[in-house]
């Protein structure tokens, strides 16, 4: 079978791709061998900076199909009719590990969905858990540093992790989920996804409701035991990538039911008055008994990327990407992510990353962004500025058209520590676990916790006790079995 002739990146035919141009058969090599120079130069630049978080990931394309009418909540066109389909791209990931780390590490999993709608890209960038460790983005760099490597030893550090968690009681809800069986899902197909944050929807009448997005796996929840997760980390560190790719390649297309929790301002105010929980606090969930799940549609993944780097590594998603009929919320963590995600992609991929095929909208678009590195869609001869008439602006009557969001209180730095309930929901989650999963939780926590100082252990045990006395007692017993005296 004949091969396509090799050329340089500029299309110039290459006479010999196996032998450098040299002065005589023994060399030295001549600088004029541009093909050699170009190959080495490109090779030196083949890696873009990996993501600070979510570095190890997998991706696939698919479709979202509307199965239920939610037009009373939103004017977003992708939900306009039952049966309507929208092309999607999904990127799954671990959070704390480097790009070469194992898929089976105990870690939350990123679950980011891009919907290529006729009104622009909507990115639902969430996790496989409905809550998170912190509620304010100012703590995010500190938290992630504790999940990375010790600056002296360059090793993962249980001391760093539990020192932070034990001084951050709002983390207990997510810590409980992380060290439960769901902390090591069996691949990406067998886990749920969540938008996690509170978002909002706006209907054609300009009425706003607040929502939480849920993606429920139709493959069933399946988790790995701690022992199997460790074994696979050594024998098949790409277990989740392999499972997802092979399933799609074999026509076994994974699906998730997309659902919503919906609440009005008045309902959330009444709920907060009754429970004391801030509905925009990312460390909390909305109980289903209070806010039932409403079916919306089905997400199916049915096409693998052709090139991992171009379509998965360079995929640049951001929760700031919403379409008309959608909005944000006062969630402090969400507000930080609205800035941080896009900014990270500007640094990592480049100022024109939205021109790459995986990131480009599928609908017509027009803006005045010009120039910068790799500006392949630079706008041609079109005007590169927007003028404002002396009489004032002239809105197009399009776009998000959100109603005004009422603000409350003076600008300041508010510390709710000691005033907010960080234990009840963590205790509720613990009490939901079957007995064997509680035992697994105790063992999973005791492993790394047994490696830290007595001071940190006692501080962390105090949080377990406040969530549920049996929670603290179980971890104490597991620590004693490992030789730590925690009386």
Description of the molecule:
- This protein is of the alpha+beta class and 487 residues long.
- It has two domains: 57-355, Beta Barrel (Catalase HpII,  Chain A, domain 1); 424-481, no CATH class.
- Helix content is 29%, strand content 15%.
- It contains 13 helices and ten strands.
- It has helices spanning 34-44, 140-147, 158-166, 172-179, 226-235, 239-249, 265-275, 308-313, 332-348, 424-432, 435-449, 454-467, 469-481; strands at residues 57-66, 85-94, 109-117, 120-127, 193-194, 199-202, 208-217, 255-263, 294-303, 326-327.
- Strands 1, 2, 3, 4, 5, 6, 7, 8, 9 and 10 form a ten-stranded antiparallel β-sheet that branches.
- Helix 3 (158-166) packs across helix 12 (454-467).
- The radius of gyration is 25 Å and the shape is globular.
- The mean pLDDT is 93.
- Its cofactor is heme.
- Belongs to the catalase family.
- Keywords: Heme, Hydrogen peroxide, Iron, Metal-binding, Oxidoreductase, Peroxidase.
- The active site is at residues 54, 127.
- This is Catalase.
Helix/strand layout:
Elements: H1 34-44, E1 57-66, E2 85-94, E3 109-117, E4 120-127, H2 140-147, H3 158-166, H4 172-179, E5 193-194, E6 199-202, E7 208-217, H5 226-235, H6 239-249, E8 255-263, H7 265-275, E9 294-303, H8 308-313, E10 326-327, H9 332-348, H10 424-432, H11 435-449, H12 454-467, H13 469-481
Antiparallel strand pairs: 1-2, 1-9, 2-3, 3-4, 5-7, 6-7, 6-10, 7-8, 8-9
Helix pairs in contact: 3-12, 4-10, 11-13, 12-13
């Amino acid at each position: 079978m004949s091969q396509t002739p090799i050329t340089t990146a500029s299309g110039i035919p290459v006479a010999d791709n196996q032998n450098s141009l040299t002065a005589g058969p023994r060399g030295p090599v001549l600088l004029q061998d541009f093909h050699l120079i170009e190959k080495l130069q490109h090779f030196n630049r083949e890696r873009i900076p990996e993501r600070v978080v979510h570095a190890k990931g997998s991706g696939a394309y698919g479709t979202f199909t509307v199965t239920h009418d939610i037009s009373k909540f939103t004017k977003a066109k992708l939900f306009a009719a039952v049966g309507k389909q929208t092309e999607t791209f999904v990127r799954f990931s671990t959070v704390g590990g480097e790009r070469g780390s194992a898929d089976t590490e105990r870690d939350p999993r990123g679950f980011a969905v891009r919907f290529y709608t006729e009104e622009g890209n909507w990115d639902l960038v969430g996790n496989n858990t409905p809550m998170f460790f912190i509620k304010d983005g100012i703590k995010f760099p500190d938290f992630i540093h504790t999940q990375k490597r010790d600056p002296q030893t360059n090793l993962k550090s249980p001391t760093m992790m539990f020192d932070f968690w034990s001084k951050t009681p709002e983390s207990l809800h997510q810590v409980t989920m992380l060290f439960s069986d769901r902390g090591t899902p069996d691949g990406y197909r067998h886990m749920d996804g969540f938008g996690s944050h509170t978002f909002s929807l706006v209907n054609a009448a300009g009425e706003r409701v607040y929502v939480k997005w849920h993606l429920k796996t139709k493959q069933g929840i399946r988790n790995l035991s701690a022992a199997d997760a460790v074994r696979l980390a050594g024998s098949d560190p790409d277990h989740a990538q392999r499972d997802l790719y092979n399933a799609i390649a074999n026509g076994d297309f994974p699906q998730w039911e997309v659902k919503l929790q919906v609440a009005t301002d008045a309902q959330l105010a009444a709920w907060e008055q009754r429970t004391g929980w801030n509905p925009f606090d990312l460390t909390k969930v909305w109980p289903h008994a209070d806010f039932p799940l409403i079916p919306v549609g089905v997400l199916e993944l049915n096409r693998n990327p052709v090139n991992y780097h171009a379509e998965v590594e360079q995929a640049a998603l951001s929760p700031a990407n919403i379409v008309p009929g959608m909005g944000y919320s006062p969630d402090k963590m969400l507000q930080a992510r609205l800035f941080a995600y896009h900014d990270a992609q500007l640094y990592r991929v480049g100022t024109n990353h939205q021109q790459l095929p995986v990131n480009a909208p599928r609908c017509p678009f027009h803006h005045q962004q010009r120039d910068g590195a790799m500006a392949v869609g630079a706008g041609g001869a079109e005007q590169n500025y927007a003028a404002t008439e002396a009489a004032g602006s002239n809105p197009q009557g399009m776009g998000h058209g959100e109603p005004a969001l009422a603000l409350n209180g003076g600008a300041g730095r508010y510390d709710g520590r000691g005033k907010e309930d960080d234990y009840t929901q963590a205790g509720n989650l613990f009490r939901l676990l079957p007995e064997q999963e509680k035992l697994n939780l105790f063992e999973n926590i005791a492993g790394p916790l047994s490696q830290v100082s007595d001071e940190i252990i006692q501080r962390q045990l105090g949080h377990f006790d406040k969530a549920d006395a049996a929670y603290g007692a179980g971890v104490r017993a597991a620590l004693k079995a490992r030789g730590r005296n925690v009386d």
